[in-house]
Amino acid sequence: MEFIPVKTRILIPPQDDLFSALDEALSDVREKDIICVSSKVVAIHQGRCVPIGSIEKKELVEQEAELIIDRVNYSTPLTVKQATFIGSAGIDESNANGYYILMPEGLFEFAALFHQYLLQKHSLKEVGVIITDSRSLPMRYGATGVSLAFWGFKPLIDHRGEKDLFGREIKFERSNLADGIAAGATVVAGEVDEQYPVIIARNVPQVTFTEMSSPEELFSSMEDDLFRVLYERFLGT
Hints:
This protein is of the alpha+beta class. The protein has 5 helices and 12 strands. The longest helix is centred in the middle third of the chain and has 15 residues. The protein is globular, with a radius of gyration of 18 Å. The relative contact order is 0.21.
């Protein structure tokens, strides 16, 4: 498996055309590639940028977050946004040129649009799309990549019914392919001034390509979430 960085021109907030940048920079796309694109450049494409100083960040977080988990003595609130635990509702000030960059809107709709662009632009039949971001994990320092949305492939590999090395039947296990690819792509993309907002994941094993995708294939509802016990007292507040 390969992760191939694609260097584009700098996309300038508050709004810039991602597709024109990709027309210039993204040329070598092959059948069965999975194209990972940073949520930040998607947000800039959508104009999801607010001038710093025009609103307090705390107020902006309150507007954008789907759930806020109060943390005493911490300056950055823990929030839920796009089925992901993330600081400050994913609002970012790095590489933002004086703006708060919000998370994109309509991520699965954009992933479908981007998927169609790739099929037509590069004359492909099977290709995948992942919109990535970085988030921190409990009991870990540092950030790792996560899939906020995907299109064109099945995000899980289902092992139920298979047998392990000793013949025991697997009853529950599924592998999270989408987040695994996103994590690898984010390592290659970098976090500072690398200028690689797009990563091609090539020769990814065990991928099933599809024409359509939906959040329910990967994202658990809060009612079914294994970790709900950690945050359920904040629901409805």
